[in-house]
Amino acid sequence: MIKGILFDFDGTLSNRVESAYFMYRWMVHEMLPGMDVYDIEFERIVQRCMLWDEYGTINKVHVLELLKKHYVPDLDVEVWKEKWYTTFHEFQVEMPHSYEVLTELKKKYKIGIITNGAEQSQSVKIDYLDMRKYFDTVIISGAFGVHKPDVSIYEKAASDLGLKCEEIAFIGDTFATDIVGAVRAGMMPIWYCYEHRGISLYEVKQVSNYDEIRDMFLINTEWNQ
């Protein structure tokens, strides 16, 4: 029986795509202040950044070097890399209905976060969205010392919740880390595929929004008896 739910942060609790889009709009405007932010050529640069970014899986230096190569020859990559990590939290957008569903889930389940990333950058994003209050544990890989999909970080979260791994569902958007790690740890994996982007022949439950999470864990719960 599932008694606890763990969440990834970027792309699961936060709308990472929307957050990155507004961050890149701000960056391009700062780099190229003479451009009209509503012009198609400005939007073209922003959309290229989104493609280069690959949903956050690519080091920002890669994106910045491409911006320098194609659009901003005098761009200081190191300066803008630092700006990304010190400013990105200001552009965070929560997933629609996440606050309401977390409030409801907390009444029935123990819930937590496991997120990969540096302690400072992840902490400020979580706090900017005022989400820490919903969770019984928050584990950031940079502070813990290992990253998902290492089983030990899942086991630490289970210990914090006072549950066995098999009593916990893990919801995350990145198959190679979130889902693989949950399976290895013996948790119930749930692939968060916002806008139904996930395609896999591996049999794994999928949800695409927080209404579906509410339905699975609070309404149609016959599977969890």
End-to-end separation in angstroms reads: 6 Å
Spatial order of strands in the largest sheet: 3-2-1-4-5-6
Structural class: alpha/beta
Enumerate the spans where pLDDT stays under 50 for 5 or more consecutive residues: none
Please indicate the percent range of residues in DSSP E strands (runs of 2 or more). Answer: 5-15%
Order of helix and strand elements from N to C terminus: EHHHHHEHEHHEHEEH
Protein name: HAD family hydrolase
GO molecular function: hydrolase activity
Pfam families: HAD_2
InterPro entries: HAD-like_sf (IPR036412), HAD-SF_hydro_IA (IPR006439), HAD_2 (IPR041492), HAD_sf (IPR023214), Pyrimidine_5'-ntase_YjjG (IPR052550)
Summarize the structure.
With 225 residues, this protein is α/β, with parallel strands linked by helices. Helices cover 48% and strands 12% of the residues.
